[in-house]
Amino acid sequence: MLELVLVSTLNGVLYGMLLFLMASGLTLIFSMMGVLNFAHASFYMLGAFFGYQISRFTGFWIALVVAPVVVGGLGALVERYGLRHVHRHGHVPELLFTFGLAYVIEEVVQMVWGKLPVDYRVPAALDFPAFTIFATNYPAYKLFMLGVSVVIFLCLLLALTRTRVGLIIQAALTHPNMVAMLGHDVPKVFMLVFGIGTGLAAVAGVIAGPALVTQANMAGLLGPILFVVVVVGGLGSLTGAFVASLLIGLVQTFAISLDVSVASVAESLGITAAPTEGVLRDLWTVTIAQVGPIIPYLLLVLVLIARPTGLLGNREA
Amino acid sequence: MSDAAHTVPDVAWASGGAAPAVARPRGAGLVATTLPWLAAAAIAAAAPLVFTSGTALTLMSLMGIMVVFALSYNMLLGQAGLLSFGHAVYYGLGAFATVHAMNVVALDRLPVPLPLIPLVGGLAGLVFGLLFGLVSTRRAGTVFAMISLGIAELVHSGSHTLHSVFGGEEGITANRTKMLRLFDLSFGPQIQVYYLIAAWALLCALLMYGITRTPLGRLCNAVRENPERVEFIGYEPRWIRFAAFSLSAGFAGVAGALAAINFEIANSAYLSVHQSGVVLLAAFIGGVGHFIGPVVGAVVVTMLQVSLSDLTEIWQLYFGLLFIAIVMFAPGGIAGLALMHGPLLRAGTAHRLIPAYALALGPALVMLAGGIALIEMSFRLLVKAGEGSAMSLLGIGFDAASPLPWLVALAMAGGGFLAFRATWGRVAEAWHAATPDVEEARR
Known about the structure:
The complex is a heterodimer of chains A (317) and B (443). Chain A has 14 helices and 2 strands, in the order H-H-H-H-E-E-H-H-H-H-H-H-H-H-H-H. Chain A is mostly helical and 317 residues long. In chain A, 45% of the residues are buried. Chain B is 72% helix and 3% strand. Chain B has helices at 2-7, 26-50, 54-79, 88-108, 118-136, 141-161, 163-166, 190-213, 215-225, 227-232, 237-263, 273-286, 293-311, 315-329, 333-339, 342-347, 354-382, 403-442, and strands spanning 172-173, 265-266, 390-393, 396-399. In chain B, a hairpin with a 2-residue loop joins strand 3 (390-393) and strand 4. Chain B starts with a helix and ends with a helix.
């Protein structure tokens, strides 16, 4: 039991930090431009595939740097020549543009790399068990992922609070007009934030690719979860995104390892009566592990009903 | 109010289904409103006589279903300004309710004919619309969009858990011929199903059009434009959104029911986020600013889905690119583009645009052809490398591995783009030249 709790906590924190790498960019982009970037998870996927492709030629470490830069550049181009153009039509077309973009990116990835998972491996230098808790070998690569996420989180925090650009970004979050009045090029700041945000998502993709499956549906699997994170945490709140990332990461990881259903609980309590057919039987025998994927969405709906600003947000979406 | 809808294409996506109120004699208005419906009924009735093949019949049945679905979606997006990413929930639940109802009717030999069965789907859609609408319509905008996405994922994931209701991976099947027979209609042949779908599609379209003309429909438009002012005149925007949402869910349920009757199966793909995406694409490509828009979109998207998938394996890529192009350059959709010319046609100046359009068409086609060739050649080399690099486009055979086709395609795409950009000024000029007369004609 202790082993399960320890390993699940480690995995949950790791998954949560990965989510935060993406959610931080997403929530920054939302705060500045008021648009929820539907294609954010697609940039994560591009990061993973670019990382795979580049690492085949140059090795993993160069790919870790080059792929996010390339994807971030792509993101900046998308903002400059796509999103900015749609911006004047209003928020709904912006959202629709990113929706279409997600669709196209998935198709392009399928076209280039096919529908099957690609063979994206953990670099040899990190392919060993870091330590052993009870009987579980914990891979060093997972620790490396955790380390990268934490370092980037700290850098982001420092950059936002301690540098001049960070201060301008923070100001542009709340008072974009005032920032423009002061002579800053707000559209350029937008482009920069979009580029950095998508670049961060790509970092997550490059490091998550070898640990998870690098496949053309990975954006579709992760995208909705990402929305849950930023909305539950509070749109535009970095701290909220951090808390919600960890929360969702832990909840999902623990849910997967809990093979408990009403039936098994009843059985251990010595209750033998059980519904034998219909919906009740389904509900009786379903395990927590099976409903695990639903929990984040349940959380999303509940949070939005009870507190539309999210857990730590102070403005409505 | 008539200006906004016609002269400013930028806001056309939201400028409402309301046609500008032009003072006309009452009798002429009646003819003008009934004529399109009679025409639509005539087209729906005559279409199977013209397109007699089985494929065409299936295609037209799908179009009818999609028309209802897309129109119901537009009650949200176009009329009430609510962007939903989970409209397939009501479509799918309507389909499942229908399949279960058909099985009950067949099992107990209840005296219910098939043409009445879509009512079950509509009712199911309405009930779930009322239920989920209660929690999701409190806010508009992004919160609404996110709740709709959350509910969609919830219901879709939940459908895998509740095996006895949703039938798991296989879904639940039904037999449409086991209903009470009226007038000796078995509904076995596709032609009978087509007419059933067409009749329901017309009825639903008529009802949905009627709703846009009621005070509720107008209030929906008002809530979309400015909820605060609606509150000032004494209405609660939340309940107006709620009413629009539930009604729209009801019509989506009818569409799901028609689909269930057509395929005789309901499975979790009906509920999927992908299905919600398709209806969003259909409504938007057609144009959400006009009532006719989603109808156009449904027809075009269904045709593209079927015919493009025959032509190329990467049709979904073209589909997505088309959608992005519409969002970027024609937010009013196909209908918005076409209806922009209405005032010019009425003023009799539309013909002045023809030379400019003809001039721009050539480069546009060259650019498109070049772009498509580039995409297809990349696809050939990257995915189908095993089948060799020899390929053909439009009957022209070439080798995708040699540099010449690439140079030609690049030149076509690039040159076409530059030429198109150069001619675009002409189009704008012609457009401006044609419009002032419209203003005069109006006065």
